[in-house]
Design brief:
By secondary structure, the chain is mostly helical. Helix content is about 60%, strand content about 0%. It contains four helices and no strands. It starts with about 45 loop residues before the first helix and ends in a 14-residue tail after the last helix.
C-alpha cells in the first residue's frame, strides 16, 4: 500500500493494474471486445447502395424514348396552356420563366444522377474485367500445364514399345535363331533334353 491509495486493498477483491506511466487522472481504457456505442450523426444517414440503385433506375428512365416523349408532351401542353388558356388561369406567361426554371432543375438533378450511375457501371465493369483477367490467367496456366503433360506423354511414348517395334524385334530373333540352326545343326537322334539330365 502506497501513500497515494485512497482506500485499503481488501482481500478477495481484484486489484486493478494501471499501465506503466499512467496516473489516476488518465481516462479509462476502452475495451476491445465490446463494440462502441454508435455516435449521433449530424447529417441524416442513407444507404449508398439503395441511393445508387435508385439513381441507376432514374438514369435508365432518362435515357429512354418514353421519357423524351413524356417530356415533349409536357412541354407542349405547358406552352399551349399558357398561350391559349384564359389569362387568369395562366401560371407562366410568354417568356415561360417557370418552364425554364423547371427544365434547369430537372437537368441539374439529371446530370449528377447519370454520372453516379456511370460510376457504378464503371465499378462493375472494373470488377468484371478483373475477374475476366484472373480467369484468363487460370486458363493460360491450365493450357500450359496440359501442353507440358502432352509433351511428357509424347516423350514417354517414344520410350514405350509399340507393336511394330516388337514385331521387328521378334523377326530379328527368328532370323537369328534360323542362322544358328544353319551354322550349328543339332543331332536329331538324341532326345531334346537327354543331355541336360
Amino acid at each position: 500500500m502506497g501513500s497515494g491509495d485512497q482506500r485499503p486493498f481488501e482481500r478477495g477483491e481484484p486489484k486493478e493494474r494501471m499501465p506503466s506511466g499512467a496516473t489516476a487522472t488518465s481516462r479509462p481504457r476502452a475495451r476491445l471486445d465490446v463494440p462502441r456505442a454508435p455516435r449521433r450523426a449530424l447529417l441524416p444517414e442513407y444507404d449508398p447502395e439503395a441511393f445508387g440503385r435508385l439513381s441507376e433506375k432514374i438514369a435508365r428512365f432518362l435515357g429512354t424514348g418514353r421519357f423524351l416523349v413524356w417530356m415533349t408532351l409536357t412541354i407542349i401542353a405547358w406552352v399551349v396552356w399558357n398561350i391559349s388558356a384564359p389569362s387568369d388561369l395562366r401560371f407562366d406567361e410568354y417568356p415561360f420563366i417557370f418552364l425554364t426554371l423547371a427544365l434547369s432543375l430537372q437537368a441539374s438533378y439529371a446530370a449528377p444522377l447519370i454520372l453516379l450511375a456511370q460510376n457504378r457501371q464503371d465499378d462493375r465493369d472494373r470488377v468484371n474485367l478483373e475477374q475476366d483477367r484472373k480467369q484468363n490467367e487460370r486458363s493460360i496456366a491450365d493450357t500450359e500445364y496440359l501442353t507440358r503433360e502432352i509433351a511428357s506423354l509424347r516423350m514417354g511414348l517414344g520410350e514405350v514399345a509399340t507393336r511394330d517395334w516388337i514385331r521387328s524385334e521378334l523377326q530379328d530373333l527368328i532370323k537369328g535363331i534360323e542362322e544358328q540352326r544353319v551354322l550349328f545343326p543339332h543331332d536329331t537322334s538324341r532326345g531334346r533334353d537327354e543331355g541336360d539330365r
